[in-house]
Design goal:
299 residues; Rossmann fold; two-stranded parallel ribbon
């Protein structure tokens, strides 16, 4: 599970690029890395929450730590290329050390009944944001003495379901693509850029604002019901974004290529491995619900 012995141990003085930094795991990563004196290039679709992240980072980062903020829609390749150019200019550099392709949204679950535009919007952000991010920043990663790519997939990257009554095709297809792409990069990088490592992150239910942010990214109205559902998703999660951040950075330091986050992720991973032929049957979801129920009570 581990890469070789020259894994990145110290983030001080490094340059980290983080997408989706306005909230959730992206913000937690920015705060943790900034506190360690890692220079930060942060992007998000929503400038108000991104500004909050920047202010929090600047309040705790050591003197001399550079923090740049960039509005970027990672679901649009030209935006990602412009983001790359702005990052290198803002930090007066030709290289970066860490790339966290973290941004993602949900929505448009049905390939059969949902509109194509919404389906492709979800897919373009969750998969395109990773692909275009790696394409854009790879030369800068290769120009560093050592570097690490961290691509966020999901438990839906190995179990394409929310259960037997909820289609989940756009998000799941994208997250499967992220997982497979990152796994394939392991050999590609080892052969062609051995000083660049990569990890795929597969979170379970993490307390983030993805539910509400997904609605905004799709241009939907944030009704009281949507806001209430988004708050419940964040507040009832068994794992916080700060806890997830710890697991991710520990995994990078250890050179892990596969980083599962949360006991629910580990439980689901094992359940799918134990009964792959049953993974999409109603009985599997019932058993899974029983196994996960104790994890959902954070008290």
């Amino acid at each position: 599970m581990l890469c070789d012995d020259d894994d990145m141990q110290d983030f001080t003085g490094r340059i980290a690029v983080i997408t989706g930094a306005g909230d959730g795991m992206g913000r937690s990563l920015a705060l943790r890395l900034g506190a360690e004196g890692c220079h930060l290039a942060l992007c998000d679709l929503f400038e108000d929450t991104l500004a909050e992240t920047v202010a929090q980072c600047e309040a705790i980062a050591p003197a001399g730590t550079r923090v740049s903020a960039h509005r970027c829609d990672v679901g649009v390749e030209s935006d990602v290329i412009a983001f790359r150019d702005a990052v290198l200019a803002a930090h007066d550099t030709d290289h970066i050390h860490l790339l966290f392709n973290n941004a993602g949204v949900g929505g448009a679950g049905s390939f059969v009944t949902d509109e194509r535009a919404g389906w492709e919007r979800t897919f373009d952000i969750c998969w395109g944001g990773v692909y275009w991010g790696c394409r854009a920043f790879l030369p800068a990663l290769m120009a560093a003495d050592e570097a690490h790519i961290v691509n966020t997939s999901s438990v839906n990257g190995f179990w394409a379901s929310l259960g037997p009554t909820h289609p989940h095709t756009a998000y799941s297809a994208a997250k499967f693509a992220v997982k497979g792409f990152t796994e394939a990069l392991i050999t590609d990088l080892r052969l062609n850029a051995p000083h660049v490592k990569c990890s795929v992150v597969m979170p379970g239910h993490i307390g983030t604002g993805i539910a509400g942010n997904s609605a905004k990214a799709h241009g939907a109205e944030i009704t009281p019901d949507v806001a209430e559902g988004a708050a419940m998703f964040r507040n009832l999660a068994p794992t916080t974004s700060d806890e997830a951040c710890t697991v991710i950075l520990d995994g990078v330091r250890a050179g892990q290529w596969r980083i599962l986050i949360g006991e629910d992720a580990h439980t689901l991973d094992q359940a799918v491995r134990d009964a792959p032929d049953e993974a999409y049957e109603p009985e599997f979801r019932d058993r899974l619900g029983e196994a996960l129920a104790p994890l959902m009570d954070r008290e």
